[in-house]
Specification:
alpha/beta; two-stranded antiparallel sheet; 10 helices; seven-stranded mixed sheet; 45% helix
């Protein structure tokens, strides 16, 4: 199977591998690649059905994306890498880490979430809602909440339009499958990770489905879950920010990454 499309640049260890979120693309990490490629080899990927990587029916579920990530790590023969996931990509990189543990040094989760506790079937209702309202309306509603009021609206619209351009036959079921994956696998996956993990968190979603920016010192059910499932997980809050801190607040995000990498070296 052909590797997912990716950009490989820079030199130095540990390598840094960047995985975007739902409906997004590798360019979301441009500010991080620019910051770190002078000292680290960097690999930014387009998941199947995203960016320039072709999608297949298998890409309607999270596990094949994790398998693609693991295959990339193996095929590039990377030494143990720090792998970054944003949003949906958090699931992808954790799945890849379990499939190719010898290639993973640490995991960075950027504004992740948990869309279903163990045994939850809430994702089925989400699927019914998507089918009822259509992919475009569902994506517009979800992405409209993802940006802080101060973020450039034209830039936000580019991100929304990019998600709308995905193939609904693949992207629609994939969006729903995030909840299925969380309910079936999140407990096992997080507790099985043996490498250092840091969560860079900016938002939380309430029971009403509304997304809100977080404050320093605040917690959430998702962060409480991470602390329980992996007690050595580090938590960093970037306050008053939307769902894309790597785009909205690149300097603060890069500073957190820098500290984490220094800690790994030490």
């Amino acid at each position: 199977m052909a590797l997912i499309h990716h950009t490989r640049t820079g030199r130095g260890t540990p390598p840094l591998v960047f995985v975007h979120g739902f409906g997004c693309a590798r360019s979301d990490w441009d500010a991080q690649v620019a910051q770190f490629a002078g000292r680290h080899e960097t690999v930014a990927v387009d998941l199947g059905g995203h960016g320039t990587s072709p999608g297949t029916p298998e890409h309607r579920r999270i596990e094949p994306h994790g398998a693609d990530g693991a295959e990339l790590l193996k095929s590039l023969k990377l030494p143990p890498a720090v792998i970054f996931g944003h949003s949906m990509g958090c699931r992808v990189v954790m799945e890849a880490a379990l499939r190719a543990p010898e290639h993973v040094k640490a995991v960075v989760l950027v504004d992740g979430s948990r869309l279903g506790e163990k045994g939850s079937t809430a994702y089925l209702a989400r699927g019914e809602g998507l089918e009822k309202h259509g992919y475009a309306a569902f994506v517009r509603g979800a992405f409209a909440q993802m940006f802080a009021p101060t973020y450039d609206k034209a830039k936000a619209q580019v991100i929304i339009d990019r998600a709308l351009a995905r193939d609904p036959a693949i992207a629609g079921p994939l969006f729903v499958d995030i909840g299925r994956y969380d309910a079936e696998n999140m407990d096992r996956v997080v507790s099985s990770l043996k490498v250092p993990l840091i969560a860079i968190q900016t938002t939380t979603t309430g029971p009403d489905g509304k997304r809100a920016s977080m404050k320093v010192g605040q917690t959430s059910p998702y962060l409480d879950f991470l602390k329980t499932a992996k007690p050595d997980a580090q938590i960093e809050i970037v306050a008053d920010t939307g769902h894309f801190p790597q785009l909205e607040r690149p300097a603060e995000t890069n500073a957190i990454i820098e500290r984490f990498l220094k800690g790994l070296a030490a």
